[in-house]
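Page 37, continued from 36.
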């Protein structure tokens, strides 16, 4: 075959470097964006961080980010019920007391976890080096609830390089650790944990002996609330039983529950929503709009530099302009999405979680004229501050469940209803999933029992059997 040339027409989608950069910046969190900009400022001499915005040789600078207006609503006949204010006074959103009298930000004390607390007590307890090593191994094996789930063999293996210990030695030291604060820590099970706490009471405590007997032999019957049968079996009257029961209720089933294992996580909002003169306003946080400008000194050197240097500076100048434009696009998109969310969820802002409307990515994408994937990127690790708290953008999105009037209720609203019903239930007669579904159906929410169970488990709420309290 002879070689020949052929001309073909075709279309293909290509991501330009500018578009790739814009997409990458869009999905960065606020902290990640700050790190990205610091890297860019260090590597690109044509970039400057300015307070009032600098101007490049083409008149463009950081003032590109000074004003970002939300796109108008799709219908020209309808006035959007949302005002947009992009550059608010930051003090409008910060409560008083953010700094102390000296102008310094208050520092949070480091939170002590359970193991640190136990090791501190161990250091103050007289013990032989052998027993201290055993106690340390036990403390390190205690879980966040305060229980010791590791076996004696595991603890013995952990000490093998130091000492050869027996199960009797481990048990002896463990009993000493159990009387550290909180009492009952390092217990193997709930019965042992409660028994150790009861042992710490004065022997003259009313109901103590009966409480110890109930914990030792009748804990399962107590959980079933088999009060009458227990009283008959132990030949005790109801008054004595109530006294012992009150003593058991005062115990702590999870000794480590009061100790935080991790520090609280703090987030900086990317946008703010507030109500002014009866209308909801949305504003980007000032920190989300970094003011970048072109370094005039280096820009002026392009015409004077040698060919190699001029080529390098021109490339850096183009990259700087791309970055400034990408930041402007990011701010505009984030503001549009935040505005659409607030418009859709005004009922939530007014009345709480039970008024949350169903909202999916396509709803916002159609309103602001963008692709769903773009909305997904914007809603990831971005936070909106509202009078009801600070929430990730994704919090406001949820699927809907039909109602009897043909409408829809969001999953978030249904979860809030379920939680309120459980909070208001009688302590001794918790509502089952079927009863919760029946009550929601009575209120016009078409929801099945298995759906109620799924939502309840998503909120980490135990079943009705586990919620039943001794009453």
């Amino acid at each position: 075959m002879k070689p020949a040339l052929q001309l073909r027409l075709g279309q293909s989608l290509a991501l330009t470097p500018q578009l790739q950069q814009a997409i990458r910046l869009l999905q960065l969190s606020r902290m990640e964006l700050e790190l990205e900009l610091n890297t860019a400022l260090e590597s690109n001499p044509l970039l400057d961080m300015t307070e009032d915005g600098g101007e490049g040789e083409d008149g463009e600078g950081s003032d590109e980010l000074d004003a970002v207006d939300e796109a108008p609503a799709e219908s020209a006949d309808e006035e959007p019920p949302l005002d947009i204010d992009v550059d608010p006074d930051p003090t409008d959103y910060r409560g008083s007391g953010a700094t102390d009298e000296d102008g310094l930000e208050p520092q949070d004390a480091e939170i002590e976890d359970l193991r640190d607390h136990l090791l501190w007590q161990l250091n103050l307890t007289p013990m032989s080096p052998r027993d201290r090593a055993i106690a340390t191994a036990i403390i390190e094996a205690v879980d966040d609830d305060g229980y010791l789930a590791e076996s004696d063999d595991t603890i013995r293996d952990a000490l093998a390089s130091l000492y050869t210990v027996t199960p009797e030695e481990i048990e002896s030291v463990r009993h000493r650790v159990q009387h550290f604060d909180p009492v009952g820590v390092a217990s193997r099970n709930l019965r042992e944990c409660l028994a150790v706490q009861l042992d710490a009471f004065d022997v003259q405590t009313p109901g103590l002996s009966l409480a110890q007997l109930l914990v030792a032999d009748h804990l399962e019957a107590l959980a079933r609330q088999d009060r009458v049968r227990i009283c008959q079996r132990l030949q005790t009257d109801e008054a004595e039983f109530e006294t012992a029961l009150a003593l058991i209720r005062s115990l702590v089933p999870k000794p480590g529950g009061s100790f935080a294992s991790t520090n609280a996580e703090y987030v900086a909002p990317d946008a703010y929503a507030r109500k002014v003169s009866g209308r909801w306003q949305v504003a980007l946080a000032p920190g989300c709009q970094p003011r970048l400008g072109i370094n005039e000194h280096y820009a002026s050197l392009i015409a004077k530099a040698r060919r190699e240097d001029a080529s390098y500076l021109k490339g850096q100048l183009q990259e700087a302009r791309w970055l400034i434009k990408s930041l402007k696009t990011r701010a505009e998109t984030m503001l549009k999405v935040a505005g659409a969310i607030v418009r859709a969820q005004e009922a939530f802002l007014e009345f709480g979680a039970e008024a949350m409307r169903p909202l999916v990515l396509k709803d916002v994408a159609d309103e602001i004229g963008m692709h769903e994937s773009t909305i997904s990127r914007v809603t990831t690790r971005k936070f909106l501050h509202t009078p009801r708290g600070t929430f990730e953008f994704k919090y406001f999105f949820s699927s809907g469940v039909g109602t009897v009037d043909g409408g829809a209720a969001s999953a978030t609203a249904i979860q809030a209803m379920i939680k309120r019903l459980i909070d208001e239930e009688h302590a001794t007669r918790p509502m089952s999933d079927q009863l919760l579904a029946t009550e929601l159906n009575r209120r016009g929410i078409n929801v099945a029992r298995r759906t109620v169970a799924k939502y309840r488990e998503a909120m980490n709420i135990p079943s009705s059997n586990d919620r039943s309290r001794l009453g």
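The longest strand covers residues 271-276. Flag for discussion at group meeting. Residues 52-108 have pLDDT under 50 and may be disordered.
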